[in-house]
Every structure is written in C-alpha cells, then in structure tokens.
Amino acid sequence: MALPKVLEGRLRIPLVGAPLFIISNPALVIAQCKAGVVGSFPTLNARPIEQLDDWFSEISETLDSYAAANPDKPVAPYAANLIVHKSNDRLDEDVKLCVKHKVPIVITSLGARPEVNDAIHSYGGIVFHDIINNKYAHKAVEKGADGLIAVAAGAGGHAGTLSPFAIVQELREWFDGPLLLSGSIGSGEAVLAALAMGADLAYIGSAFIATTEARADERYKEMIVESDGEDIVYTNLFTGIHGNYLAPSVVAAGMDPNALPESDPSAMNFGSGGNTKAKAWKDIWGAGQGIGAVHKIQSAGEYVDQLAQQYDAARKRIGV
Length: 320
What we know:
- By secondary structure, this protein is an alpha/beta fold.
- It has helices spanning 26-34, 49-69, 91-101, 114-121, 134-142, 164-172, 188-197, 206-209, 218-226, 247-252, 300-318, and strands at residues 15-17, 39-42, 78-83, 105-109, 126-131, 147-151, 179-182, 201-204, 232-235, 243-246.
C-alpha cells in the first residue's frame, strides 16, 4: 500500500476532506489544502457551469501562489467530485473542465464510467471512486478507478451499512491500491485507527460543516455542534437512497424521525424531498455519527490543527 505520487510529501496528516453537497466552496477547499489535507467539492456546487471554470482557476492559482510563498509547508492538492449517475445532465461539461484545468484528483460517485476515468487519466489525474460494499468496489476497479473510498456505516450523506472493520477487511483481501475510509471519523485518534485497520487515508466530511469557511446555514453548523451520534437517522425517504441525516432537522421539517416511511428508489432525485416537501441538504441536513467529536465552530485550519495534535498524541501513546 502506498500513497499516489500526487500526495507524497504534501499531507500534514493522512486525510481527505470529503465533498459536501451545497456546502463545499473554494474558501473551504483552499483552507483545507493550505492546512495540509486534501480539500474537495462537488462540481455541481458551482452553478452555472461557467462558475466551475472560475472556481478551478481560483483554487489552482491560490494554492500555487501559497505553496511558492511557503515552501516549508505541506500544501495538499485539491479534488473535484463528479456525480456520474444518469440523472446528472451536466456530467460531460464538468469532465471537460476537469481535463482543461488538469484537476489532480477526481472523486466519482453513484456509478463508475470507464470513459470518465479515461478522460481524467489522459492528463495524469487520478480517480477515487466511493463504494459501500465489495461488489461495487470490484466494478469500480474493473472500470478503471485508481483508488477506493469505503463509505462505511455511520458516514454522512449516502452511507453504507457495513462496519468500517468489515468493509476494510474485505477490500484488503484483494485490493492493494489507495484506500480511503469514511464513517464516524471526527478525531485525530480515529484517523490513526483508520490507518491501523488498513486504510491509507481517512475521509472526513461532517465535521467540516461546522467550520467558518463552509457554505452552510449557521443553524446547521450549530446543530452539528449540539448533536451527537444518537441524533442521526438513516433513511431513503429524501433522495431514494439511504443516507444519514440530523434528526433535529427532520423534526424541524414537521416529521417524526422515528416513523419515516420508505421511499421508492426508482424515483431517485437528489434534493427532491422524495414524497415530502422538505428537500434533502437544503431542509433536511446530512451528517454522520462522528459529529460527537465536534464541540465548536472554528476555521478549517484550526480544526486540522486539532486533528493533527490528536493524531500525533495517539501515535505517541501506542509507540508508532
């Protein structure tokens, strides 16, 4: 197991900030990368399509300038997240812009397409594909993904149901490429635990919602701080795919989080609200079970500092 060359010597701790629908923006991505962890964002956050071109330029130019002015600091590369599901009618345009700007890392979600992987590989980029089980992992690798993101139980958004221990063990029986792990990770100790299990990188999303740079409603940030793992509800009602959401936001939308009906998966529509008037991500807020580690709103840099201190202390405790 080894990190891709694009990451060698460029990480303060082995961590990727997960792309957050609606929330991730250039300010957050730049802050994460400056702090020494990979920052990422869904390309669909940039609307209209012309804004994506601007975002890529802003992120690349800012990070290049910062790295040149701070040669002694690890400045991580950034990643863009492509939703490759058939419902995304902007995919081809977004891929072309990734190629134009030579985005170093692309994260693909909700389907694996060889033609997308080939486009990213054409300029030397790498592709990480997120999966929830072994079956999808095999398909992703067969179609050309360079690495896998294991989205385990407890992760925010569209999470799987397998324990992090189970999914990593199963994947490592046959896959020796880059492996990222998501699922209830919110502390530096948890980052180290992910590596001990066999992952190469930890993958944290929910905790970054409660940062000053995140483009999230302040009530959302406060709810992350005030909630813990018991405040997470797993349902497919809001998008047609099972995911983890903050129960208090479900209550605020006038529903009982303990009595939610099942949705029709064939009617999958991200943010449609399924059979409800409340919209996923806008009204119903996603989060993973690891939010119990978040105790205040702070900058992304301060949060990475906290993680790094916890990570180093945990390594010393166990002598690694």
